[in-house]
Amino acid sequence: MAFSGLDIYKLLPKTNCRECGLVTCLAFAMQLAKKAASIDKCPYLSTEAKKALEESALAPIKLITIGTGNSKLEVGNETVLFRHEEKFHHPCGLGFIIEDSLGDSEIKERLDKINKLVFERVGQELKVNLVAVRQTGDKEKFIRATELVFNNTQLGLVLMSEETEALKEALIKVRERKPLIYHATLENMAVVSKLAQEFQCPLVATALDLDKLSSLTRELNSQGVGELVLDVGATSLKDKIWDLTQIRRRALKKSDRSLGYPTLSIIENEDPYEETMEAATCIAKYANIVLIKGIEPAEVLSLLTLRQNIYTDPQKPLQIEPKLYPVGKAGDKSPVLVTTNFSLTYYTVLGEVEASKIPSFIISVDTEGMSVLTGWAAEKFTPEKITDSINKAGLAEVVSHKRLIIPGYVAVMSGDLEDKSGWQVVVGPKEAAGIPSFLKNL
Ligand code: SF4
Predict the structure, then answer these.
(1) Whole-prediction pTM value?
(2) What's the per-residue H, E or C state across 111-130?
(3) Ligand 1 probe mutation, 9, 20, 41, most atoms within 8 A of CB
């Protein structure tokens, strides 16, 4: 756990000698707590104090990288239990299990579908991250399936096998992709840890309870393997959530380094709704990687949308640049719709304007990412701000009319806006869904 300024102060010599450049040891402690100073600046730190401070500066949950290049997945390095305390930093990786019992054409077909699982939502691209190849039969089939996956997707790889020799041969084929190796257990760790070291790949550590998992990671660390992902192998959703929460809690609140790694959850349910629900629960608390079997876009999009929402900064709403946006071949006679720069609002309005097929302009006002009613209530979406936005955008030079369409929810400001801006104000629909018919009848 990161030390507070006072915790750090207790470890300092308290002589106020000023050699660190600060007037007191307390001032230096406060700078260290804010990560605005380095411990090397104090030449009088004891070895024990230095070690304690260095350890406290380590991330409580280690950052682990799977894969390389544009498809690499980074998970971990989380610092809080609750999103409102700060933010979650590295979005949960979503991957799909492909079993080697499938035929070549079925594997290729599934990979083709997986590769197409890319969506755009509120201006961001939502993508899946991993493909896990699982051995179910003989080694040759596993190697063949691994090669097929390697050759037909650029996504990160997970190699799942209970056979060390099969893992080794698969690793030889795909080592350049830096796959995640599944898995080391208390029984096989001596051999599997050597593979992780030889191929420089991250390794999943699996044990059936947290104390055994803790012993396993300590043992793996002592063998020189530190790039770990934790798996408690729980089968029921209730046990999964309990374990995931305890791992996060022990790492963050108890500074338990043996559990300070990202976690993996494997969800397999023949019912796609159940599978989506279980995966969503694990994404929310606190899996860092979720592997599922379902590859249907409806299932995947709902999980990616949830992930996007959880991993945005709650203190910074998603925003777009406040400016004038043409939609379609907008010209000087095109209507001008006014909205805010909250991404969700803007893209909802944009979608409806596009659906109307009437070339238009949308002017997004800087409301610091607030939606229409919130912005209006917080005095960020006001006649003054809208006037300022249309002046900055030079709207009078872009269109040959002087008419603005404002959201129906802020009809109350129409008179004031006309006075302040000198533009005629037309009150539009309250809901974006009403925009197409509104524009057609304008
Ligand atoms: S150099 Fe060390 S002992 Fe001297 S004031 Fe700074 S923190 Fe205190």
Answers:
(1) 0.80
(2) HHHHHCCEEEECCEEEECCE
(3) 20
